[in-house]
Specification:
- By secondary structure, this protein is an alpha/beta fold.
- It has two domains: 17-257, Peroxisomal Thiolase, Chain A, domain 1; 268-417, 3-Layer(aba) Sandwich (Peroxisomal Thiolase, Chain A, domain 1), CATH 3.40.47.
- 32% of the residues lie in helices and 21% in strands.
- A hairpin with a 3-residue loop joins strand 14 (399-406) and strand 15 (410-417).
- The two termini are 25 Å apart.
Amino acid sequence: MSFKDRTSQLPDEQRIVMTSVGLTSPNGNDLESYRDALLNGRSGVQNYNIRYVGDTFAGVCQFEATKYQSKRDIRRGTRAGTVGIWGTAEAIRRSGMDWEKVDRSRVGIYIGVTEHGNVETENEIHSIKGYDYDVSFWSHHHNPRTVANNPAGEIALNFGITGPHYTIGAACAAGNAGIIQGVQMLRLGECDLAIVGGVSESIHTFGIFASFKSQGALASHPDPTKASRPFDVDRNGIVVSEGSCIYLLERLSDAKARGANILAEIVSYAINTDATDFVLPNPERQAQCVKMALDRGGLGPDQIQIVSTHATGTNSGDSQEIQALRTVFSGCEGVHFNNTKSFIGHTMGAAGALELAGNLPAFQDGVCHATINVDNLDEACAIPGLVINQPKELGRVDYILNNSFGMLGINSVLIVRRFS
């Protein structure tokens, strides 16, 4: 059966491209250092101590926040806002556009989050505990810090953007969902430049660690750099991480007009829901989501060179995703599968966007980065083309498919291609 990439048949005004990316991750604060870490097996997971839970592991971002924010604004705002501002500032700086000439009423901000407000509420309760729970000591900044639109709103305030801004709550599929929302809004003419992606401040809330621990799903290992180990027989849970990854999206016609450097073109996407369990994934629905994305783009599964897996390092989640991928890609030679969480842990709302970013340079260097920490591959997670422990030279990469799934059964798939 022959397939035709439908996106190439659209007018330039309906074709959406990525023209810049800014990020902070546990193992790099720009695309170059992040990619270098992925190609050279450097984990960003470290020892971490969190209130009430104690010693554990986390992926921690280390960057100079005052480069783009005043100390006052950092104190007044949130960590989610700060990582989002860093990513946005870096994306704008690297875009080649004259920001002072941009019509900011035509800029839209669509940021994916897993959860928001837990950190700030926990901190306030901990603080007033020292005052016998006297709420007169409660911060008046609490409400603007905890509203759901806060991360996107802090970006809008920092950059003077007066177009639409909001967050997309899509559990751990949120990074993909933020990108997808930007694509849709550009095609509808609701904005001319979309700031999209995902953010996570999850390591600053003890509740998320406590919840995963109570589920028996919080990773443990003698070596923090080996704690995140998707597909390995001895995997035992999630490493919680923070981060952000922000893209600038433009219509191809606008990108061409300003001579932008195009990182990738967005070919297709899909979102669906398992509707079967609060936590446990449904491989049938995941496979359906991948097929929907391929069909929408007019693509066959054998046209994909790299599939970025969602796998978090949990026993059921990893094997069920592989089951879904076997359903779609069975018999397809030349398809390769990798995982980025093995390097950085699970960055929750930022995961989909960050994991895609780690693979984008493959369009230039032709290399599929590995999944690390696979000492003993679980047969339930085996699939032809799985790249483990060492990166693989592919020669040429034209299409990347990015899986990102979340609790309450939300599934998302994003497909991007080399632009030429």
